[in-house]
């Protein structure tokens, strides 16, 4: 599970960031800028949610599973 999570971290972070960013019509940007900002936004979201989860007593394995599920849902939303 850890190897799968490590392999899928950047696409999950990118998908979560893309869902949160406004469209290019609202905020114009290049493709590479969108990719990098979406990745950084998704990484920050995963870090913040992980910290909040651990601080509230949720086991990290549950947080990891929720991140994988949320990233998969974000990817489905992006490509449908």
Structural shape:
elongated
Strand content: under 5%
Rounded mean pLDDT score = 84
Q: Fraction of residues in helices?
A: over 70%
Work out the number of β strands: 0
End-to-end CA span: 26 Å
The helix tally amounts to: 4
Low-pLDDT stretches are: none
Largest sheet: none
Order of helices and strands: HHHH
Rg from Cα: 13 Å
Features:
single chain; 80 residues; 4 helices
Descriptive report:
The model has no long low-confidence stretch (mean pLDDT 84). This protein is 79% helix and 0% strand. The chain has four helices and no strands. The longest helix has 25 residues, at 31-55. With 80 residues, the chain is mainly α. It has helices at 2-7, 9-20, 31-55, 60-79. The protein is elongated and about 40 Å long. It starts with a helix and ends with a helix.
Q: How do you describe this structure in short?
A:
The chain contains four helices and no strands.
List the helices and strands and how they pair.
Layout: H1 2-7, H2 9-20, H3 31-55, H4 60-79
Helix pairs in contact: 2-3, 2-4, 3-4
């Amino acid at each position: 599970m850890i190897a799968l999570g490590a392999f899928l971290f950047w696409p999950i972070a990118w998908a979560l960031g893309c869902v949160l960013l406004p469209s290019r019509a609202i905020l114009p940007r290049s493709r590479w800028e969108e990719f990098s900002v979406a990745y950084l936004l998704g990484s920050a979201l995963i870090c913040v949610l992980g910290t909040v989860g651990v601080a509230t007593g949720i086991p990290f394995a549950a947080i990891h599973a929720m991140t994988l599920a949320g990233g998969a849902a974000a990817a489905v939303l992006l490509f449908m």
